[in-house]
Design goal:
The protein is mostly helical. It has a single domain, classed as Endonuclease III, domain 1. The chain contains 4 helices and no strands. Helix 1 packs across helix 2, helix 2 runs antiparallel to helix 3 and helix 3 crosses helix 4.
Length: 108
Amino acid sequence: MSAENEKIQRLYAQYRAWFLRYLDEVDPIDLLIEENPGNEYSPEVDRIIPLVAKASSTSELASQITQVFAHMFKGINIGPAEVYERIAAAAREKWRALREELQVGVDT
C-alpha cells in the first residue's frame, strides 16, 4: 500500500472516530443514557460519511442526514431539523479540514 493510501485510510479513520464522538455529544434522538455506551450511532455514521463528500451544500447534507435517521429510527421522533443542520455543518467543516490536511501531505 502506498504512503498516500495509508494517509487516506488514517484520515478516514480519524474522521469516522470524530463523527462518532460528535454524534454521541449531540445525541440527536436521546439514545444515550448513562447505561448505554458510546458509538450508538455507528451504523448511521457509516451511512452518512459517503454522503458528506458528495453533498453540494450543508442544506443538502442536512436533508440526507435527516433521511438516514428517519430510515434507521422508523417510528421514533428524530428531533428538529435544526439539529441536523448543525450536524451537517460540523461534518462538512471537519471534512474540509481533513481534505486540506491530506492535500498538504500530498503536495509536500
